[in-house]
Each structure stands twice: as structure tokens, then as C-alpha cells.
Amino acid sequence: MASIISPLQAFSADIGGVWTIENEQTDASTEALSAGTIQLDPFGQLYQVSWLAETGSRLGLAFYVDRYLVGGWGYEPNYRLSLFHIQADGTLEGYWALPTSWGAIARETAKPDLTDGLEGLYDVDGIDVLTRKPRASHLSVRRNGDLYHLGSTQFPNAQGLGLRLGDWLITNWCGTRGFGVMAYEVSEGEARGGWISPKDDQFHPEVLIKVG
Questions:
Q1: How far apart (Å, rounded) are the C-alpha atoms in residues 71 and 179?
Q2: What is the DSSP code (8-state) at residue 12?
Q3: Contact predicate 13/68, CB 8 Å
Q4: Which residues, 6 or more positions from 162, have their beta carbon under 8 angstroms from its beta carbon?
Q5: Residue 2 has pLDDT above 50, yes or no
Q6: pLDDT tens-digit series, residues 193-212
Q7: What confidence score (pLDDT) does residue 45 get?
Q8: Spacing of C-alpha 29 from chain mean position
Q9: Which residues contact 88 (CB under 8 A, 6 or more apart)?
Q10: 72, 179 in Cβ contact below 8 A?
């Protein structure tokens, strides 16, 4: 299985720093996430993401793995970021973190119970990122166009939203609508992808250009 790149490895790959945002929407009336820049700073085993934008500032977290920059944000520090590696047998090997866990990553495994491709029900076993104690839950995954909706018995009052890149599913969970998910493929100082939020359930394509 591919491993998540450590902050030192990711930093040597020239991922950290300042990136400008170029919106690829053809509809000028479509809301952009932000007109400005994104800054990536190593944060434990993750990256802290800072949006410096005309529409306001926000903070998030991101993984860098297999040339993919994937993450999410929340307007309040009560979101949960999860990254799943999709195995050939349908098992989801998961990594997750909280904005309050100081960059630490916990592991979990979601085994298919009743699935059709990626969609369906899973039995989840894992370790809590804060208490380091075992925990078990059930996960549901449903596709809707470019995005995925998720539910969990561990977070009955939260909604999950996800994007898929290759064999990876990046998801973000929150009890409010003030959060989102981003996913980009990085190549030679450029990151192409986009973001979604529960505000409109639409994929917003954009390009990030590294400038510093």
C-alpha cells in the first residue's frame, strides 16, 4: 500500500509554500472559493492550509500522497478529515485527523459489508486519534455525480462529503454546513483539481500555481 509522505519528504518535493488560485469556472456568476492565495505549512504528518482571500480567511488541513494534495476546511474547528485508500478487494484503508490533534494521524479500516463498487455499507475498526483507544462503527457511502455523501454511526449528527482521485477518497465531516473538501493532482508547480461544499453540492474546478 502507498504510504502517506512525511512532512520532510513533502517539503523536499516543493509542496509547501504559497500558491495562487485560478478559477476555471466559465460561468462568471459562480462563486469562487477565494480570490487570492493558499499557503501550505508542514503540520505534524499533515499540512496546515491557510486561505488568504478577498472573501475572507479560513484554515484547513491537507494530506500529500501519490502526487495528490487532498484536504478540507471548516469555519469552526469541529471537522474531521479522513483519507481512504481503496484496495482491490474493496476494503478502505483509512487515515484521519482533527484540527485539534496537532497534526497526528490515526488509522482505521473499513471492510465492505454490502457494497456495489465504492458505494454501500462498511464495517469500520480503528484507533481514536486523541485517546488511542480502539473503536468500531459503520460507514455508508453514496455517490452523487462528482462527489460522495457519507454517513457514520460514530458521528450521527455530522454529514460527510468526499471527492475521489485515483484510488483515494478524501472526505470531510462536520455537524454544520460551513465546511468543504478539496482535491488536486500536483505536477511541476501546478495543482489541478477543485473543491466542493454542502452549500451547493457542486464541483468547482480551479488551478493552483506555486509562487513561493
A1: 11
A2: H
A3: no
A4: 141, 147, 148, 149, 150, 169, 170, 171, 172, 181
A5: no
A6: 999 999 888 898 989 999 98
A7: 83
A8: 26
A9: none
A10: yes
